[in-house]
Amino acid sequence: MSTPFSGITPVSFLQTFVLELMNVREQAGPADAQVIERIGCAAGKFFEDSFREEFGKRDALTPEEYADAILGLKNHIGGNFSLASSAPGCIRVVNTACPFGDGVKNAPELCHMTSSVFGGIAARNFGYAKVVLEKRIALDQGGCEVCVYTDRESAKDRPGVEYQADRKSDARAIGELQADIEERMGRIWRQYGTRQGRHDAGAGPLIVAQSPAMRQVLRAVETVAPTPATVLIQGETGVGKELIARAIHALSARHLKPFVAVNCGAIPEGLLESALFGHEKGAFTGAVEVHQGYFERAEGGTLFLDEADSLSPAAQTGLLRVIQEGELERVGGRRAIHVDTRIVAATNTDLEMAVREGRFRKDLFYRLNVVRLAIPPLAERPEDLPQLVQTILKRLAQRYDRPTATLSGKVMEQLRGYSWPGNVRELENILERAVLFADGGMVHHVELDSAATPLAAESGKAARRQVMAQAERTLLEQALRRFQGNVTQAAGWLELTPRAVYLKLKEYGLDASRYRA
């Protein structure tokens, strides 16, 4: 039953407001996937300052003072928290009544906001904290039980969210990097759009990187972009490989020069050499004039070769010469032409397998594979989905000159449960169809491929591979945490060679140094 109007208080008003904020957050496209934690950490700083001022605390809080602060905070706003235990390195609190009442069951993410308050205050005072939600009223478990670990060793095998004194600065660095990439890509896109006479030149490409995997990709882009290194991007169709290539170009010293994208798989084999390297007049029937290929058109800039596995043997030979010697010969030509073009290649297949099968030159593979970036499929980046949805809906509104559509809760749940075989490109197509046929501003229905829904409906082989890969990654992370990033010790524990562990770390995009104390 809702609160009578005459019974509304400032606290109940705020509670209702926050609950509704949580209900719409999944459609609202937060600035990043940790928005709940950021709100909690920021609020925790304010509450901590209030506690310090009232009780005259200037130094770091002791565990006892910390417990007083978080219990007092929760009980002041209507909870029923108490201290269950306070062993060295761990503080456990319990409660039987949630400050948000039964409404919290409709917004269980509020528990993460509470844990962020606890974790942020603990990290600021003890340098480290891991918050483990043992029981939650929001999940109908009869009460809440929260453990705050302040000792890293005690917490290493516990599932929970970690907080560190520099956590906020790390998030800020990622935010600044993403903003820098977006600003530079937007600037290039606007210049391109103006030259092409595009009316939507202001839209530009946008990389959504709320998931840890995509944030790691952005860090790699930042590192490799200023260098002349050749880059190989691997990922399923529709994950945004060209977008990452454009980001590399935008952050490089070549950003004022052309970015030329070529889909090698879309060019007939007989025309591929001419398209890439150009041809001389009279080189073949129909060659009535000199033709500059994509390499020459990308002079000084970046050439993006998508579906590089589709290159013919002759084109592979020519590409290898360009990479090794910086020169090419047009088809029918007799002189070498110097070119200064950076190559970013992409594939959705296993190039190493193609090498073993003799379909791709080994020496060319090694030349392309100087730096490899793996773009995870959308199904493995659930944190990116809400902002991707909101970004696409905003752009569709701009394209069709109508208000931004909103998805019903049921539709959002459908999208979350879908396996996305076509990745971001499929998401764009599905949302565009849904918006075009939506009744008013609310989308109540989307057409999904029933053969791919839900995730569990994938082929047994694919599902088994995904589960085994996730289990292997989890085991690797557990070993790295246990031995604080020491690969040799982790390898011994896993009964593997250090080389095998290093290969697995590379495969899963893990950095052992991030686990060192």
TrEMBL record:
GO BP terms: regulation of DNA-templated transcription
Domain Sigma-54 factor interaction stretches: 207-436
Record Pfam families: AAA_lid_14, HTH_8, MetOD1, Sigma54_activat
Annotated InterPro entries: AAA+_ATPase, AAA_lid_NorR, HTH_Fis, MetOD1, Sigma_54_int, Sigma_54_int_dom_ATP-bd_1, Sigma_54_int_dom_CS
UniProt KW keywords: ATP-binding, Nucleotide-binding, Transcription, Transcription regulation
Domain of life of the organism encoding this protein: Bacteria
GO molecular function: ATP binding; sequence-specific DNA binding
Record-given protein name: Sigma-54 factor interaction domain-containing protein
